[in-house]
C-alpha cells in the first residue's frame, strides 16, 4: 500500500510552526555527522557552510538547497525563489534564527546554509508541507547533505579529486546510452554532483534520495487532475538514479 501524504496548509500557521520545530529538532541529531561530512567534502572552507531548515528557500518539490546568506540593510537574509522565477532576499529575523542549527560565519565572503525541507502545491495554488520528511530514512537525509555539500565545493572552486573527474568524464562519454530525451537543463549538472557525492562514499545514500523523491512525486501526481507535470520530474529523478546505479556499481 502506498504511503499517504499528510499535507499541512501554510494557512494553518500554528500547525506548520509545530511541524517545522519538530523537523528542525530531528535535523539537529545529524549535526555531528554534518560536521564530519562538511570537513570531508568542503576541505578548508567549512566555516562558510551552516545547516538548518529554511522553508522559504525551497522551491516546489526541492528537498535540499544550499542558500546563500547575506547582510542586507543591517539584517540577515537568505536567497529564495519568487513567483516570478527570480531569486529574492528573504529576511531572517532574530526570532526565526533557531531554524539555522549551525550558523555559518557570516563574515566570510560566501556564507551558505544547507537547508532541508519539502513542500508541494495543489490544484488550488496552496502550498503544503510534506510531513513524510519527518520520518524519512537517515540515508535520505545524509544523501541530500552530501549532494548539497558537493555542489558547494564546486561553487567555492575546490578541485575535485582525479577519480571524481574521471567518473564525470565517463558519464559524459556514455551520456547517450541513458534514455532520457526531454532532460531539464539543470539535470545535467545535478547528475555530476550526484556522481561526485557517490565517489566520496555516499553512493547508496544518493540512490536512496532518488528513490524517496520518485515515490513522493508519484504521490503528488495523484493529488491533481493532470499530474501538473510531475511525470517529467519523475523521469529526471529516475535518470539520475540510473546513472549513479550503473556508473558506480
Question: Your description of this structure?
Answer:
This protein is an alpha+beta fold. The protein has one domain. Helices cover 46% and strands 17% of the residues. The protein has helices at 13-28, 31-42, 138-155, 162-173, 185-222, 230-247, and strands at 7-9, 49-52, 64-72, 75-81, 87-91, 100-102, 112-116, 119-121, 127-130. The strands form two sheets. It has a six-stranded mixed sheet with strand order 5-4-3-7-2-6. A three-stranded antiparallel sheet has the order 1-9-8, with helices on one face. Strand 3 (64-72) and strand 4 (75-81) form a beta hairpin. Helix 3 runs antiparallel to helix 5 (185-222). Mean pLDDT is 87; it is low at 1-11.
End-to-end span in angstroms? 30 Å
Outline type = globular
How many β strands by DSSP? 9
Q: Tally the helices: what do you get? A: 6
Compute the CA-based radius of gyration.
18 Å
User: Main sheet?
Assistant: 6 strands, mixed
What is the residue-averaged pLDDT?
A: 87
Low-confidence stretches: 1-11
User: Biggest sheet, strands in spatial order?
Assistant: 5-4-3-7-2-6
How many separate structural domains?
A: 1
**Approximately what portion of the residues adopt beta-strand conformation?**
15-25%
Q: Helices and strands: which structural class?
A: alpha+beta
Notable features of this structure?
alpha+beta; 6 helices; disordered N terminus; three-stranded antiparallel sheet; 249 residues; six-stranded mixed sheet
List the helices and strands and how they pair.
Blueprint: E1 7-9, H1 13-28, H2 31-42, E2 49-52, E3 64-72, E4 75-81, E5 87-91, E6 100-102, E7 112-116, E8 119-121, E9 127-130, H3 138-155, H4 162-173, H5 185-222, H6 230-247
